[in-house]
Sequence to fold (171 residues):
Amino acid sequence: MLNRPAHLFGVFAATVGIFFNSLLIAAPAGFLPQTIDLTLNRDGMLVGRIVDPRGQSVANTDVTLLDNNEIVSLVKSDLEGNFRVPNIKPGTYRLASNNVTQICRIWAPGTAPPAAKQMALLVTNKPVTAGQVAPLKYWLANPTVMLGIAAIVIAIPIVAFNASKDRHAGS
Fold:
């Protein structure tokens, strides 16, 4: 005898699992991309930018637009991480580069919902390792360090002035 609710739940879970597995082919492990709405520019071109986790541009990297695992377009980012995908028809696509995937609903100009973005932004998942930033630049960007430096710059002349004043008073 078949337990109907349990059986239907099992079929539903298996179907959802197959669906999500097909979406995550190029996505990093443990990451479920959300669908974003993008609008094409007036020339029918999808524009975007690819950056690393620190916001630095990722230059000369492949950006692929896929429709059901078929490559629709393959372009390279420029020196500033910008990319342009020409001649795209509205629809749902996967935008992939390096180790990041974004599901996109692409709209024709003038038909997109108000929340649609004018530009895609891909943030790579490549790990940030020590030594990628110059140490001085890292420390000078830290507000606590800058506050300490300012305190020292103010305190040294005061201490020097008071010490010279004490020497003159003692003579």
